[in-house]
Design a protein that fits this description.
It contains 11 helices and 9 strands. With 312 residues, it is α/β, with parallel strands linked by helices. It folds into 2 domains: 166 residues, NAD(P)-binding Rossmann-like Domain (Rossmann fold), CATH 3.40.50.720; 121 residues, N-(1-d-carboxylethyl)-l-norvaline Dehydrogenase, domain 2 (Orthogonal Bundle), CATH 1.10.1040.10. α2 links the parallel β4 and β5.
Length: 312
C-alpha cells in the first residue's frame, strides 16, 4: 500500500473527488495526501479534510501515487513535464493516475514519456459530474498494467460506487470518449423531446418525471431534470465548450476506426452552434433553451423541487 498520495487539479471534479478520497476510511489509514492547484486558495479548504497543501508540483514528486484531474491533454503535459512540473526534477513519483478527459494519442505520448522516466501510468477516466462525485456515485474505468490497477484500486474505491479495469494501454481513453459522445447525443435528444412535449402542452416537470420512471430513465436523466425544469443553468456541472471538446474527440476517434456516427455528427454541430452563441460559464443543459428558441417556445422556470437521485 502507498503511504504518500498526491493530487493535482482542484476544479469542480477534482475537488469533489479528493474530498471523497480523504474520507477513504481504511484505504487512507497511515497515508498522507498532499494537494496542489494552480490557484492555491482552492487547495486551502481541503486542510480541514486532512489534506496538506503542497507549495509546488515538484513537492509532490516524493509521493508514491499522484492523481491528476485537469481539463485537456496540454494541461496534463504542462503539470507533468513543464520546467516546474511534477516530473521535472531528479526525484519522480512512482505512479501517476490520471482521470482527465484527453485523447488516446495524447495519453499514449504521456505514457511513453513517463515510463521512460521510470514512472508507472494508469488511465482512470470517470463517469459522472461533480455532484455525482460528491455523492460517491462515480464509475471509474481504468486501463494500463493490471498489477498497477490492483495497486491503485483501494484508493479508487474510496472515490466511486464502482471501479473497473478494461485492459491495457489507452483503452480507458476510448471508453471515456465513447461515453462522452453518448453523453452529448443523449442531452441533445432529451432537450428535443422535452421541448416537443412542452410545446404540445405537457408541463416540463411532468414529462421529465415520466421519462425518469420509464424504461428510458437513467441516473443521467434524473440528475439533469432539476436544471431542465428550473432553468438553473448557472449551476455549472459541465460547460458547452468542454462538451464540444469531447464531441470532437469522439468524431476524430470514429474517423480513426472507420465508424460512421451520424447521430453524434449532428449533435456535434448543434453543440458547436451553442458555443458559437457565446454560452461559456454555464451548464451545457442550456441546450434546452437553444432548442426551445428554435421552436418558437419561450421557456420559464417551473420552480419545482425535483429529486435528482443523488441524495444520500
Amino acid at each position: 500500500m502507498a503511504s504518500k498520495l498526491g493530487w493535482i487539479g482542484l476544479g469542480r471534479m477534482g475537488e469533489a473527488m479528493v474530498k471523497r478520497l480523504l474520507k477513504g476510511g481504511p484505504a487512507l489509514q497511515g497515508c498522507t495526501v498532499d494537494v496542489w492547484n494552480r490557484t492555491a486558495t482552492k487547495a486551502e479548504p481541503l486542510v480541514a479534510y486532512g489534506a496538506r497543501v503542497a507549495p509546488s508540483k515538484t513537492a509532490l514528486a516524493a509521493c508514491d501515487i499522484v492523481f491528476t484531474m485537469v481539463s485537456t491533454t496540454d494541461d496534463l503535459k504542462q503539470v507533468l513535464f513543464d520546467a516546474d512540473g511534477l516530473c521535472s526534477g531528479v526525484q519522480k513519483p512512482k505512479v501517476v493516475v490520471d482521470s482527465s478527459s484527453i485523447s488516446q494519442e495524447g495519453s499514449a505520448e504521456i505514457r511513453e514519456r513517463l515510463e521512460a522516466m521510470g514512472v508507472a501510468y494508469l488511465c482512470t477516466p470517470v463517469s459522472g459530474n461533480a455532484k455525482v462525485a460528491k455523492a460517491g456515485k462515480l464509475l471509474m474505468v481504468s486501463s494500463g498494467p493490471r498489477a498497477l490497477y490492483d495497486q491503485a484500486e483501494p484508493y479508487l474505491q474510496a472515490m466511486a460506487r464502482k471501479v473497473m479495469w478494461v485492459g491495457e494501454g489507452e483503452l480507458a481513453r476510448i471508453w471515456k470518449i465513447a461515453h462522452n459522445t453518448m453523453f452529448g447525443v443523449v442531452i441533445q435528444n432529451l432537450c428535443e423531446i422535452t421541448v416537443l412535449a412542452e410545446k404540445a402542452g405537457i408541463p416540463r416537470h411532468v414529462f421529465l418525471e415520466s421519462i425518469n420512471d420509464s424504461v428510458l430513465g437513467s441516473m443521467y436523466t434524473r440528475y439533469k431534470s432539476p436544471v431542465l425544469t428550473n432553468l438553473t443553468f448557472e449551476q455549472v456541472t459541465f460547460t458547452p465548450k468542454l462538451l464540444l471538446k469531447d464531441m470532437d474527440l469522439g468524431m476524430a476517434t470514429a474517423k480513426t476506426y472507420g465508424v460512421a456516427m451520424p447521430a453524434a455528427a449532428a449533435t456535434r454541430e448543434s453543440v458547436a452552434r451553442m458555443v458559437g452563441h457565446g454560452h461559456d460559464n454555464v451548464d451545457f443543459a442550456i441546450l434546452l433553451q437553444e432548442t426551445a428558441l428554435d421552436a418558437g417556445l419561450a421557456l420559464v422556470s417551473e420552480n419545482k423541487v425535483i429529486d435528482d437521485g443523488l441524495q444520500g
